[in-house]
Design goal:
The chain is 9% helix and 21% strand. The protein contains one helix and nine strands.
């Protein structure tokens, strides 16, 4: 609700509500598929001043959780699920200089690093490879 606040235009039944655009951006660029509540599942009242009210129901639980691919702590050990080329710096313009083969194990060397491009919704990690 950061944009448009409690304005009626944030109602999920309105044409192109802002939050749908945000979820679409996440799905397209952050490599996760967030669970989106169905319009009928959300209890929203439109008040006489055209502001939204959530007084009837303030908490919602989804049947699945969206696993983040960007919150691995230092020391996490992972295995490559398919051949993957890694970059040498936390930027999408950096050189792809190392290909790890499916099954290769690596360890997160330090906490995540945000990419320097605000349009890129992912983080980078320094990794250490066994061998």
């Amino acid at each position: 609700m950061d944009y448009n606040g409690l304005s009626k235009r944030n109602h999920p039944n309105e044409k192109d509500p802002y939050q749908v655009k945000v979820y679409d951006l996440i799905k397209e660029n952050a490599y996760v598929k967030p669970y989106v509540l169905k319009n009928d599942d959300v209890s929203i009242i439109i008040q006489s001043n055209n502001l939204l009210s959530f007084k009837e129901k303030m908490q919602y639980w989804t049947p699945t959780r969206t696993k983040s691919t960007q919150l691995y702590p230092k020391g996490t050990e992972l295995t490559v699920s398919k051949d993957k080329t890694f970059r040498n710096a936390p930027t999408t313009s950096s050189t792809k200089n190392q290909t790890f083969k499916k099954g290769q194990t690596y360890t997160i060397f330090e906490n995540s690093i945000e990419y320097n491009n605000p349009a890129n919704l992912s983080n980078g990690y320094k990794v250490q490879v066994s061998g």
